[in-house]
Amino acid sequence: MDRRFFLKGAALIGCSAAAMPLFTPVSFAAMPGENRLVVIILRGAMDGLDVVQPYGDPDLRRLRPALSMGPQGGALDLDGFYAMHPALKSLMPLWQKGQLAFAHAVATPYRDKRSHFDGQDLLEAGIAGNGPVPSSQDGWLNRLLQTMPETSAETAWSVGAQEMLLLAGRAPIRSWEPDTDLALTPQAQLLLGQVYHDDPLFRQAAEAAIEIDTRATEVMNADAAPQAKDAPRPSNAARLAAYSAARLNEEARIASFSITGWDSHKNQPGVLGGALKQLAEAILTLQRDLGPHWDRTTVMALTEFGRTVRQNGTQGTDHGTGGAMLMAGGAVRGGRVYGDWPGLADGKLFEDRDLMPTRDVRAYPAWAMAGLFGIDATRLTGTVFPGLDLGQNPGILL
């Protein structure tokens, strides 16, 4: 086997972030304590006004005559003002148990330019500004790890078809990519170990990759075993969630992956419905596979920006500013929509087209970190999210 080829393959399965900056849709880091945090990046700018529909605002119908219809269009009423998109129906039991919540009218500091690339980079970098983000910039989840000396390279993971800037940085992480398979026989693994015993770089990369690949195969086989012949195949999001849960049931305390498919310029009902079903499947997979650990888990799903308040001529919406985020888990104080509603009346919109942000979206994961891992305000606003105005604690955790 070609040495360069194997090292590249090994890096796609598992590597130290400090040594090989190739990153991942799934990443993990060991931390003390029993609390767990899962961060899901929703790539493509989810329309928060359709996910958590403010049907009680009289201007919504005027601006969206055919989208976000509220209970009249099949959405599930939450509190008499907001309704949840019907594609999230499977999550209604979590809402009723107080394990599902939303925050509305949130945004990163990114304004005006509406580029997916810059918006996603700023969301994951966790810094202020309007992009582009320097290639050397690390991510806020990695900076969290850098503030915690207990974090170990043995329990940090990263894989990927999609780079996760969120976890890029000096703190070591490991990874797993579901479509990468080393396909080495036990004899080949033994031979590799003998041939490259005195080559530390190759030996360590190979050992880590083989270990991660073996464990991933075990998880995937276990997940696939109960499937009946006519059962639907788990989505990619569900596979990522299943593997995340397996790691979180062991040493890992943080997991992060992304779900794509939220860019709904046209045919929004079809586009958004499909993406939301994947998100719901991922959350329910986490709930199922985490078992009792679900009660100590907080899931946060964030997107780079919202979409225009007015629907366009193709049954879609275009890039906007203010949006919404989702929170789930047994550690979440759910059954409510957080945030100050700015209204949709004339003069209330951002640049007369977008939902006006009333809070920095970074404040929610910051307060979650404070509650889950005991991170103080100085580190949150000085290191993890530089310059963030934390504001009042919204009380999202039990």
TrEMBL record:
Query: Does the keyword field hold Signal?
Result: yes
Q: Which residues cross the membrane?
A: none
- InterPro entries xref list: DUF1501, TAT_signal
What is the annotated signal peptide range for this record? 1-29
Q: Which UniProt keywords apply?
A: Signal
State the source organism's domain of life.
Answer: Bacteria
Q: What is this protein called?
A: DUF1501 domain-containing protein
To which species is this protein native? Paracoccus suum
Traced from the root, the source organism's taxonomic lineage reads: Bacteria, Pseudomonadati, Pseudomonadota, Alphaproteobacteria, Rhodobacterales
